[in-house]
Specification:
about 220 residues, about 25% helix, single chain, globular, alpha+beta, 6 helices, 8-stranded antiparallel beta sheet, 12 strands, about 35% strand, two-stranded antiparallel ribbon
């Protein structure tokens, strides 16, 4: 699945999230120049990354729960293949041209930084080609997850690549898709957000907590 298709899927799904689930909406992220059809969601400030997240947790990837084609949401629930076929008057083979590859992961929560969730495990849905390995989702690697609630009000998703920050040599960075094709597996590289590249992990965590506290008392102006 190429980068443009990935991005369009992400933006389309992000636009279906409840408008009150996060302080900054899709249209507001576009106005800030942080949501683009080609590059996806690229936060320019920590303020934006925090304000665009429903839930922020420190945790780890757990087990893979499911891998399947996904047909979107209808009235807050997963659309089914049969309903999708009937609604769009498609054959089964035609319908499968429109499904989105999706992987569901268990997220083991070590600490909740923003949001009211009390569960020790969450379900994260990633819209991606079936991963060949766990290189980018290796269990027991502590990460920061910046999540948005899905329309089912049960599972979570990522607004963009930088919505999962992992530790690389005492700095938080993220895996960024750089290409695929010709039978080659998807390729990724490690990147760092401009506003965090000069901070150690502990410094970034402290700055993050300060920003969360600040927004709790003074929500971001629209």
């Amino acid at each position: 699945m190429n980068i443009l298709i990935r991005t369009l899927i992400g933006i389309a799904l992000l636009a279906t999230y409840p408008s009150l689930a996060q302080e900054l909406s899709v249209s507001e992220l576009r106005q800030r120049g942080e949501l683009d059809t080609h590059s996806g969601y690229s936060p320019k400030t920590l303020e934006s990354l925090v304000a665009s997240s429903t839930l922020i947790v420190q945790g780890r990837y757990g087990d893979i729960l499911d891998r399947r084609g996904f047909f979107g949401y209808i009235n807050g629930r997963d659309d089914t293949l049969e309903e999708f076929m009937d609604r769009h008057d498609l054959t089964r083979n035609e319908a499968f041209r429109w499904d989105i590859p999706m992987t569901e992961y268990n997220i083991i929560v070590d600490a909740v930084l923003k949001g009211g969730v009390t569960s020790e495990k969450l379900t994260l849905r990633k819209y991606e080609s079936p991963p060949l390995n766990r290189e980018r989702t290796e269990p027991d690697w502590v990460r920061l997850f910046f999540l948005v609630i899905n329309p089912d009000n049960r599972t979570y998703a990522l607004a963009g690549e930088a919505s999962v920050l992992s530790l690389f040599d005492d700095k938080y960075g993220y895996f960024s898709f750089v290409g695929s094709g010709d039978g080659r597996p998807d390729a990724y590289e490690v990147r760092f957000l401009d506003f965090s590249s000069g901070l150690s992990a502990k410094e970034f965590e402290a700055t993050l907590l300060q920003e969360i506290s600040k927004q709790k008392d003074n929500p971001v102006n629209r």
